[in-house]
């Protein structure tokens, strides 16, 4: 890792993890001992976002057990420990697995300075982009997501509707439309006070893949982030998206793996 990447990773860890802000209306970020966690309603994202870099291996199992007890006491039957490859102790992944957490697909943490990204939106013929304005648009986002990924969007629907209604300045939803049909959707979460905005989604239905829509969605959101004064874009990228983002100027900083605890 070169000095630029090291500096970006340190900034990300400090602003987005150690000093995390609530990521849902009505949610809260809690610093307790060796961890920082997000706590919200059952349909919000709940989980550990940071653990101390000097987390003592002798205490790690007890810290994990404390988080399980905390979320279980709140009535949450599922929460996540968002583990990064540079987190310590080195065997934290194995400790989480032993405590009953299940690892999901790893993703690459990529960050880019907004000023170094293209904001020129180039779209294939017949495709237009527009921002999400209301609940009907959220349903179009859900349709595009479910067609692109084949997965249920009910929990995300709740989260997006809440952001749109209660925190519209911290959320940007984008639709790629062909006529009245959504062929891709994406969103951007803005984190005031951090300098960071996060890119999420970007799934495109199969018939429209490989035509530059994903790149256009990145450029469209980068332009909005620049207009609003944000300095960095962050993505947790799948193996499909990561190569595209690298070509656009994003730097790979770490790998992140969701470890999910389900009590039933």
Present the secondary structure layout.
Blueprint: H1 3-18, E1 28-32, E2 35-39, E3 47-51, H2 57-73, E4 78-84, H3 92-98, E5 102-103, E6 107-113, E7 128-131, H4 135-149, H5 154-166, E8 171-178, E9 181-191, E10 196-204, H6 213-227, E11 232-237, H7 242-248, E12 251-262
Parallel strand pairs: 3-4, 10-11
Antiparallel strand pairs: 1-2, 2-3, 4-12, 5-12, 6-11, 6-12, 7-8, 8-9, 9-10
Strand content: 25-35%
Structural class: alpha+beta
- Please mark out the parts with pLDDT under 50 across 5 or more consecutive residues, or reply none: none
Question: Largest sheet, described in full?
Answer: 12 strands, mixed
Specify the helix fraction band. 25-40%
Indicate the mean pLDDT: 95
Give a quick summary of the entry.
The protein has 264 residues and is α+β, with helices and mostly antiparallel strands. It is 34% helix and 31% strand. Strands 1, 2, 3, 4, 5, 6, 7, 8, 9, 10, 11 and 12 form a twelve-stranded mixed beta sheet that branches.
Can you tell me about this structure?
The protein is an alpha+beta fold and 264 residues long. The chain is built from seven helices and twelve strands. Strands 1, 2, 3, 4, 5, 6, 7, 8, 9, 10, 11 and 12 form a twelve-stranded mixed beta sheet that branches. Strand 1 (28-32) and strand 2 (35-39) form a beta hairpin. Its EC number is 2.3.-.-. InterPro entries: Acyl_CoA_acyltransferase (IPR016181), GNAT_dom (IPR000182).
